[in-house]
Amino acid sequence: MLTKKRLFFLGAGSMAEAMIKGLLAAQLLPAEQISVSTRKRTEHLQELSTTYGIHRCQDKRAEIEAADIIIIAVKPFDVATALQEVRESISARQMVISVAAGIATEDIESCFSEQVPVIRAMPNTSSFVQESATALCGGRWADQEHIALAENLFSAIGISVVVKEGLMNAVTGLSGSGPAYFYYVFEGLIQAGLECGLPEETCRTLLLQTVYGAAKMLKTTGKEPAELRRQVTSPNGTTMAGISVLEQGDVLNHFVQAVKRATQRSEEMGRQSNPAHV
Ligand SMILES: NC(=O)C1=CN([C@@H]2O[C@H](COP(=O)(O)OP(=O)(O)OC[C@H]3O[C@@H](n4cnc5c(N)ncnc54)[C@H](OP(=O)(O)O)[C@@H]3O)[C@@H](O)[C@H]2O)C=CC1
Ligand SMILES: O=C(O)[C@@H]1CCC=N1
């Protein structure tokens, strides 16, 4: 579906690069059909162009007009300015996909004079290795074909699910930010291994396989995490001793609070960065 489409990335940061890397690895479309732009870091455009063979944007407006899909990948508080600059080059024959946290489809739609189809998506940086967990929803002017096209794109770089827009802030707090929670745990476990006398390389090798194995167990057995945890936990053994420390620190509840706070932050950013109010 996407083989002949031209993609324009408004923004060339972590998320845009992760998506580009994943899309090219999936061979969904040729690199020359992808164009990227930045605000000021033009040297970064050259780097991306050299690394991935994608088109280095020279004339933002003309290239946006020629694109089929415009992907908004700037920070939420930069969406308003970025759209102001290019909104007249975007028409209803195109499609906009925004990955900006918190920004509602209707607020993006209101920037255009035409009925531009808008998809709001929340991937994560594991797009880089084609393992993103993406949730997406369609705005007022997006029909089933637009949603299918977006699913096609995000399924090439991981898995994708369609949700109601009212759930997008929660998705952002959970799986958009999600990789960072797991990296945080990983950092803690590396530090633990070092303090217990293991060499860093050994810690990393053992932990990488442990986290990969645990994810694969969850995925392939379909069992509840609590049940899998029980299988590891011998009565009065090492796991029970370790978990009791986490329970004393109410760590599980801290994860719940972290995701709730991230969800709330997504809502706040949506209100504070609303492009419709600029
Ligand atoms: N990072 C993540 O894990 C995820 C991020 N997101 C969303 O993706 C979006 C981008 O995040 P991230 O990649 O982390 O951010 P970065 O700061 O890494 O990248 C932002 C990019 O936007 C560019 N930019 C800013 N203003 C403009 C403009 N007017 N025109 C063109 N380009 C512009 C910047 O250019 P310059 O460097 O020149 O200023 C930079 O290349 C955010 O809205 C975020 O909510 C969604 C899911 C996960
Ligand atoms: O931290 C952020 O705001 C972005 C959105 C989801 C992941 N990173």
UniProtKB/TrEMBL annotation:
Q: Under which EC number(s) is this enzyme classified?
A: 1.5.1.2
Which reaction equations make up its catalytic activity?
Answer: L-proline + NAD(+) = (S)-1-pyrroline-5-carboxylate + NADH + 2 H(+); L-proline + NADP(+) = (S)-1-pyrroline-5-carboxylate + NADPH + 2 H(+)
Q: Which residues form the Pyrroline-5-carboxylate reductase catalytic N-terminal domain?
A: 8-102
Subcellular localization, as worded in the UniProt entry: Cytoplasm
Provide the Pyrroline-5-carboxylate reductase dimerisation domain boundaries: 165-269
Positions of NADP(+) binding: L10, G11, A12, G13, S14, M15, T38, A73, V74, K75, P76
A Gene Ontology cellular-component term: cytoplasm
Per the record's keyword annotation, is Cytoplasm included, yes or no? Answer: yes
What does the record give under GO molecular function? pyrroline-5-carboxylate reductase activity
What's a BP term from Gene Ontology annotated to this protein? L-proline biosynthetic process
Question: Chief localization class?
Answer: cytoplasm
Q: Which domain of life is it from?
A: Bacteria
One Pfam annotation reads P5CR_dimer
Keyword annotations for this protein, in alphabetical order, are:
Amino-acid biosynthesis, Cytoplasm, NADP, Oxidoreductase, Proline biosynthesis
The pathway it acts in is:
Amino-acid biosynthesis; L-proline biosynthesis; L-proline from L-glutamate 5-semialdehyde: step 1/1
| InterPro entries associated with the record | 6-PGluconate_DH-like_C_sf, NAD(P)-bd_dom_sf, P5C_Rdtase_cat_N, P5CR-like_CS, P5CR_dimer, Pyrroline-COOH_reductase
The UniProt function text for this chain reads:
Catalyzes the reduction of 1-pyrroline-5-carboxylate (PCA) to L-proline.
User: What is stated as this protein's family in its record?
Assistant: Belongs to the pyrroline-5-carboxylate reductase family.
Read off the HAMAP family from this record.
Answer: P5C_reductase
Q: What is this protein called?
A: Pyrroline-5-carboxylate reductase
Q: Which organism is it from?
A: Tengunoibacter tsumagoiensis
